[in-house]
């Protein structure tokens, strides 16, 4: 089947969700929409189960940190329709102090590790996740290293201190 | 005439039909020429070590024929490559499982200091978790450098006292790492 045109995709989403889902843009023809955490599972369910769209494949769940924005933490979903070879990107932005979002493991088992990774690096808490703990970093780590506030260099390292260089 | 050079005998009392030396020295020679290395190779330095083991450089010349991929009866832990923080407890456990006497070489920039990976996930030198005897510089070091590091270990092994473990200095070093 041919790729679904973005206009058709926007219309299908708008018919169902009205103003709850806004279109952010189409960079490189990849439709990008934004929604809130109240609608995210409904939107994902619709995209996955709709008879025409069939976005059955969850490519990735990840996050991004914009420290200058009011809603700093963004959770990003990438979906792929294998039958029509169409892709879509969904963004949900959360405020720093309240980084809860419902888990997508109810729709895809594969979301399990993606959400653990997103929690590990950005500290996003996926409500309803069966086993939300660190996956790649050491267990006793206290920070979320992919946030922009995290220092880029290892603070334990002493051999680059100024006094070793007479400064 | 053969151009093979023989190593001099250690200092001792020599006479007609006998030669006496201290047990320390005899054991030291035996140990240093029969080291069993445990290669702990995680990245590029490990590939360089494979060349060191292969026919051209042939680490076996030094009595290190038997590479042990188990801490059991291995004497020398050779850490070659980047050790992530998540790997650190594993490395430490391998070291703890080795029986005394044991020595450690950190091969290459990553094992010695974290190398270029000055990040949250990489251990900034294996000496943060286990004591190290010899550091081999390089990124990655050439096989000659690894052999040089190995020969430095041999020199250590040869000249150390028989029971290094019971020395206060060594015990203090291990205590610093929270080992026994």
TrEMBL record, chain A:
SUPFAM superfamilies membership: Nqo5-like
Entry keyword tRNA-binding: no
The enzyme's E.C. designation: 7.1.1.-
Domain NADH:ubiquinone oxidoreductase 30kDa subunit: 34-155
Keyword terms, alphabetized: Cell membrane, Membrane, NAD, Quinone, Translocase, Transport
Membrane topology category: Peripheral membrane protein
A Gene Ontology term for the protein's cellular component: plasma membrane
Molecular-function annotations in GO: NADH dehydrogenase (quinone) (non-electrogenic) activity; NADH dehydrogenase (ubiquinone) activity; quinone binding
Compartments it resides in: Cell membrane
Catalysed conversion reaction: a quinone + NADH + 5 H(+)(in) = a quinol + NAD(+) + 4 H(+)(out)
UniProt KW Hydrolase keyword: no
Name of the protein: NADH-quinone oxidoreductase subunit C
Organism field: Mucilaginibacter celer
UniProtKB/TrEMBL annotation, chain B:
Residues reported in the UniProt entry to bind [4Fe-4S] cluster: 44-45, 110, 139
GO molecular function per UniProt: 4 iron, 4 sulfur cluster binding; iron ion binding; NADH dehydrogenase (quinone) (non-electrogenic) activity; NADH dehydrogenase (ubiquinone) activity; quinone binding
Broad enzyme group: translocase
GO biological process, one term: aerobic respiration
Annotated GO CC locations: plasma membrane; respiratory chain complex I
Highest taxon in the source lineage: Bacteria
Reactions accelerated catalytically: a quinone + NADH + 5 H(+)(in) = a quinol + NAD(+) + 4 H(+)(out)
Chief site of localization: membrane
Cofactor binding: number and manner: Binds 1 [4Fe-4S] cluster.
Classification via SUPFAM superfamilies: HydA/Nqo6-like (SSF56770)
Membrane topology per record: Peripheral membrane protein
Record-annotated NADH:ubiquinone oxidoreductase-like 20kDa subunit domain positions: 44-152
CC cofactor: [4Fe-4S] cluster
Keywords tagged on the record: 4Fe-4S, Cell membrane, Iron, Iron-sulfur, Membrane, Metal-binding, NAD, Quinone, Translocase, Transport
Pfam families documented for this protein: Oxidored_q6
Subcellular location: Cell membrane
EC number: 7.1.1.-
PANTHER family named among the record's database cross-references: NADH DEHYDROGENASE, NADH DEHYDROGENASE [UBIQUINONE] IRON-SULFUR PROTEIN 7, MITOCHONDRIAL
Subunit structure: NDH-1 is composed of 14 different subunits. Subunits NuoB, C, D, E, F, and G constitute the peripheral sector of the complex.
Family: Belongs to the complex I 20 kDa subunit family.
Function: NDH-1 shuttles electrons from NADH, via FMN and iron-sulfur (Fe-S) centers, to quinones in the respiratory chain. The immediate electron acceptor for the enzyme in this species is believed to be a menaquinone. Couples the redox reaction to proton translocation (for every two electrons transferred, four hydrogen ions are translocated across the cytoplasmic membrane), and thus conserves the redox energy in a proton gradient.
Protein name: NADH-quinone oxidoreductase subunit B
């Amino acid at each position: 089947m041919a790729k679904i045109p973005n206009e058709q995709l926007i219309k299908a989403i708008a018919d169902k969700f009205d103003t709850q889902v806004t279109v952010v843009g189409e960079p490189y023809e990849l439709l990008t929409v934004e929604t809130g955490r109240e609608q995210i599972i409904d939107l994902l369910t619709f995209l996955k189960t709709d008879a025409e769209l069939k976005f059955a494949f969850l490519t990735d769940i990840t996050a991004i940190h914009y420290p200058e924005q009011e809603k700093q933490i963004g959770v990003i979903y990438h979906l792929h329709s294998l039958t029509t070879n169409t892709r879509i990107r969904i963004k949900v932005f959360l405020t720093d102090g309240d980084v809860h979002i419902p888990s997508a493991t109810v729709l895809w088992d594969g979301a399990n590790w993606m959400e653990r990774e997103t929690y590990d690096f950005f500290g996003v808490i996926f409500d309803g996740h069966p086993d939300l703990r660190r996956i790649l970093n050491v267990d006793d780590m206290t920070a979320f290293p992919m946030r922009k506030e995290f220092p880029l260099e290892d603070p334990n390292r002493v051999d680059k201190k100024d006094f070793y260089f007479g400064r | 005439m053969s151009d093979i050079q023989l190593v001099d005998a250690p200092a001792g009392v020599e006479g007609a039909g006998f030669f006496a030396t201290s047990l320390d020295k005899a054991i030291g020679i035996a140990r240093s020429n029969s080291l069993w290395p445990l290669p702990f190779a995680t990245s590029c330095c490990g590939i360089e070590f494979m060349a060191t083991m292969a026919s051209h450089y042939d680490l076996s010349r030094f009595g290190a024929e038997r590479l042990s991929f188990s801490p059991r009866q291995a004497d020398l832990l050779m850490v070659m490559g980047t050790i992530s923080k998540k790997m650190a407890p594993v490395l430490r456990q391998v070291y703890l499982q080795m029986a005394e006497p044991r020595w450690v070489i950190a091969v290459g920039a990553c094992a010695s200091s974290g190398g270029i990976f000055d990040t949250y996930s990489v251990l900034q030198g294996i000496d943060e978790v286990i004591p190290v005897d010899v550091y081999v510089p390089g990124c990655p070091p050439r096989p000659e450098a690894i052999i040089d590091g190995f020969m430095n270990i041999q020199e250590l092994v040869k000249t150390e006292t028989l029971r290094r473990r019971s020395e206060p200095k060594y015990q203090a070093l291990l205590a610093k790492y929270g080992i026994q």
